[in-house]
Amino acid sequence: MINRQLILLLRTCITIGICLILLGIYLHNFNDTVAAMGVKGIIISSMCVAFGMALSLPTKMYLTFILVVAETTKKDQPE
Predict the structure, then answer these.
(1) What is the mean pLDDT of residues 37-41?
(2) What integer best gives the mean pLDDT of the chain?
(3) Burial bucket for residue 7 (CB in 10 Å: 0-12, 13-18, 19+)
């Protein structure tokens, strides 16, 4: 897998993770159906947030690491 494809995959994971976090917040705060479900509704909304964080946070760190390494190698090369 080349770097562009890897970066695209990581950005897609970040986007999906952020969308899941926002979905969990929406379900917890603004959806009466999930609130009426009681504990099961809380579990559903918290699982959306948990999976979203699991997708987005480590991916952000790895993507930042790749971009920093690419920038330092670009600076080290003589022009």
Answers:
(1) 92
(2) 87
(3) middle
Coil, strand or helix: which one is 63? Answer: helix
State how far the Cα of 19 lies from the Cα of 6, in Å rounded to an integer.
20
User: What is the spatial distance between Cα 75 and Cα 21, in angstroms, rounded to a whole number?
Assistant: 36
Q: Per the structure block, which two tokens stand in for 39?
A: 């504990």
Position 1 scores a pLDDT of: 62
More confident residue, 7 or 49: 49
What the block records as the tokens of 62 is: 């790895």
| Contacts of the segment 45-48: beta carbons below 8 A, 24+ positions apart | 48/20, 48/21, 48/23, 48/24
Neighbours of 41 (CB within 10 A): 17
